[in-house]
Structure formats: structure tokens, C-alpha cells
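re the bet — no i am not wrong, look at it urself. input seq straight from the record:
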Amino acid sequence: MESAKTALGMTKYFVALPPAKHLLAMLILGTLLGGALLAWAREGSLEPISILTGAGSALVTFAIPSLIAAGALTFLRRRVTPRRALAVGLASAITYLIFALASSILGPIYPPAYNLLFVGFGVAFLLWLVTLKYAFGLTRSAWLFAFAQLLGYTFFILAGSSLYTEAISDVLIRVMLAAAVFVAALYGVLSIATGPLKRNLGLKSGDVLSGFSSQWLFGENDLEDTFDEIGESVQTYVGMAEWRTKNGALRWVVPYVHFGPFGNLGGSHFSYKMAEALSTPNTMAMVFHGTCTHDFDPVSSKQINALLAACQRMSAHFAFRPAKFSYKLGESGDSRAYLLSVNDCALPSFSRAPLSTEDVNFAIGCELMARAEAVYSNSMVFDCHNAETGDVDYIEPGSKESFEMLDALADAMKKGNGGKTTKTISNLQMLAGWTHSPAEEIGGIGDGGIKVSCFCAKGKESEPLFYILLDSNGIVASSRERLIEAVRGKFPHARFVEVLTTDTHQLNSVRGVFNPAGAQDAEALERVVVPLCEQAHKLLSPATFAMGKERVEVKVLGPYQSAEIVATLNSVVAVLKFALPIIFLAAIALILFILGKIQ
């Protein structure tokens, strides 16, 4: 798990860009300030006319070629938005300014340092090439754009600078030599990174980087081809329970795959896509978080077809009977088992809130279902995943937490009619009601929105059970408690109120791997959830019930590949932490040495 945390920690470097107008303002103000500093460094004067002249010269020398390059990129490659093009232009302008300033400050002390300006050309060229090729996916035109901006900056700097008076041919030779050295450095870095990826996973680092960037920036799923190469086929389950009332049908679905890895890749969108496919105008589907870790991330979105086909087969053979149910709470250590049984089927869910309730290994889920099926004819187990603390610890076989879950289920199952706990409801006619909201305006909620199921016994409508499902990557523990208290404020005699999340990884992209609901919009959540519970309660009607579970084959990343990917990424990062600065400094030293030999 420490390796997984290290790999996930890399996402802290992913940031969202500011608006284009802010980037434009930063470009203009940055070059004006840089020009003023250049004037001071070159002339040693703080006279207003000198500062203004330097600022204006820098605006022409550095800002204009950046704007031209960004504009041309946006015009010729429409997939690159102005904001992203301006960000690259701003970064390159800052690079040129930094090295020009270093050249002006150090040049009078150590004359070869004047060539630092050409080092800046090489760094900026590398910046454009890497961004265009690996981030924007411009495989061939990346070289053309990178060289075009290099020549453009050369022209503007020669036209607007009195620092260099050499012939244009001499300047171009120095510029191209600097670019060539950094290109060689780039391929040196790629060879270092490619080694472990190629040896351990059979992948090219360039393909992985390009695929990741295309998903991150453009929402494309090219990376699924890479996942498919290294994935493996597994047998797993999908379970579905269905209630029918005069108001329509409610489906609870638990696919035993993980809704990851991120964005729109693999199974990240399954919680929404499956619910959408299994819903009709009169049917609402709720897709819960199965007991699976990232080992069971589907390699592609196409894997959803096998799960949906199984659900359709089960539905076609359902034999509905009047629903009678019981609810029992079992506890052990920090774990709780919420055992909802309908007719002869068990639907236990588990939580450790307010402690972290991260992913549960598939083997543990199978063991829990086997324990339940020693008493019930069928079962499907799901994880509430309802306390995001920032930890990524999985519950694995043999852990203390896994035995607590088993013991909590056993505690619930031994509580029969008239058991000791006041949380027990036994074999009474079941009323069911449900509703949902897209909740599009609430942060941390995916496309599946918020859904609520309400159950109670006939004649005991004041003692409902509420299952509140958020299509989210977890929920902050304090927000979960707030929602439960708010619902209990409206239903003080409620037997059960719990907030669950799907653990969708749809949101896990630019914003990193932790995007829980309630982190910022706790009040907005409350304003939506409480009325939904009231509405679901009003729709309570006598229900019939049927349930099934089927084994299916899907292709997933797999336990060995998941561990190998994490270990490989960590080894690559560990090596690059030392190799990158060494290679970068060596490239600078080589450029200065070569240019120093040119007369």
C-alpha cells in the first residue's frame, strides 16, 4: 500500500489551468516585468526611461512571438484550446526571460555565460516539443511547430536585442546546436523511463504518456488499448435485486468490478452507464460499490456489455413474490454489517465510518456471500465506501478488518426474530419507494447523481430505512454525519439511515484521486438529499421482489499487473528524480562548452 500511495501522490502535480484571459494577462505583465529586470541587469540603471524601454522591448521580443505561436497552434490544431496554447506560450516566454536575465547578469563576470541565452532556446524548444508530442498528441507536426516557434523567437530576439551582433547564420547555428543537445537529452530520459516499462509491462513510455495526456486533456480513451494489452480475463459476479410497486420498478445492481481507473477509462463510468442502461421511464437502477479493488478495473468501457447482458438474462427469469423483509445490525470492532434480507435473499452492506472505508478485496466479498448463503438462498454484498479520509488502504484477506467484517455479518445473522438489538425488523410486509436527482450543480457528484431508496414495514411508516446513494468517489466523514442527522431530523424514528457512494472514478482526472462529495458543498448536499428522502417516503407502496446473481467473464487489469504497474511507476519515478536534474545540468554544460568553442 505504501507503493500505491507513492504512485497516487504523483497526481498532486496535476493542476487545472486558469482562464485564457488570465494567462494572457500573466504573459503581458510577466514580460513587462522581465523586460524591466533585463534593462536593469544590462545597464545597471533604474532610470524610468531605461525601465520603460526595457519593458517595451521585452513585450515585443518575448510576448509577441509567444502569442503568434499560441494563435497559430490553436488555429491549425483546433483540438488545442486557446487556454492550453497560451499556457505553453507563457511557459516558453518565462523560459526565455529567465535565461536571458541569467545571461545578462553573469555575462560581464564570465563571458561564456552570454551563451546562456541559447540554452534558453534549447529548453524552450524542448518544452514545446514534449508538450505538443506527448500532451497534445501531435506526433509529426510537433516537430514543425517546435521548430517554427524556435525560428520565430530567434527572429524577434535578434530584431529587438542589441546584446548579440553576430551574423544571423552564427546565431542560427548556436540555436540549432542547443536544440539538438536537448533533443538528445530528451531521448536519454525516455530510454531510462522506457527500460522498466518495456521490460516489466511490454510498453513504451511515449505511448503511455501520450495516452494518459489524451485522456487528461481531451477525454479520449486511447489508453484502453494499452490496458487491453496487459490485462487478463477473470470470472466475477454481477447481482441484481428488483422491487416492483404500483409506481414502477427499483433495481439494485452490484457488479463485482471496480469503477476505475480514472476519467472515462475502463470501468470509471460504469456506475452511471449501467444505471442508465438498466433504467426506463418507470424503472430506477441503483448501482452499488462491489467488494473489489483496482485489480478489477475493466481494461475498457466495452467490458460493460458482459455485465449488462447478465442483468438482462436475470431479469428475464425473475419470479416476483410479495416482499417480506427484515433488517439487522451486526457489529465487530470498527466494522458494521447492515443486513437487509428480503424473502430468502440477503443484501448486506458494510461500513467502518468515520474510519476509512476503502476498497475491499474480491475474495473477502466472496467469503461474505458464502457465509450469508449458508442461511439465505442468495446474497449480494456491497461496500458503503462512505468515509473518505485520504487513506488508500485496501481491506485484504487476512487483515484485522476483513475478520471484523465477517464477524459483523455473523453478529447480524444470529439475531433472529425478537433479537436483542432494537435495530431488528423481522419478516414484515415490505413497502418500497424511491427517487433521484441529477444533482448537477453539486461538486463531487458524477453523472449518476443522487438516488434514494426507502423501505418500511406496512403499518410502521414512521420507522423507515433510507439508503442514500451518491455517484461519487466517497464522501467526507463529517458530511456523511451531517446528512444522516438532517434526515433523522425529519424522520426521528427511522430505523436506518446511511449514505453510500458508488466510488466512481469518473471525476478522478485533473483534480487528482481524491474527489469526495461534501468536501465543499455539504449544505448543497443536504438541500437535495433531505427532500429526496421525503419524496421517496411519500411514494411508499407494497412491493414484490426478485433477485439473481450470475457469474460473468470480463477482462481487467488483474492483481499482478496492478502491482506491477505501481512498482514500475515508482521505480521509474525514483530513477528520474536523480537522472533528470543530472541530464539537464549535463546538457547545459555541454551546450556552454560547445558554444564556447565556436568563434
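see?? Residues 1-11, 417-424 have pLDDT under 50 and may be disordered. told u. also Residues 470 and 560 are 31 Å apart (CA to CA). so pay up
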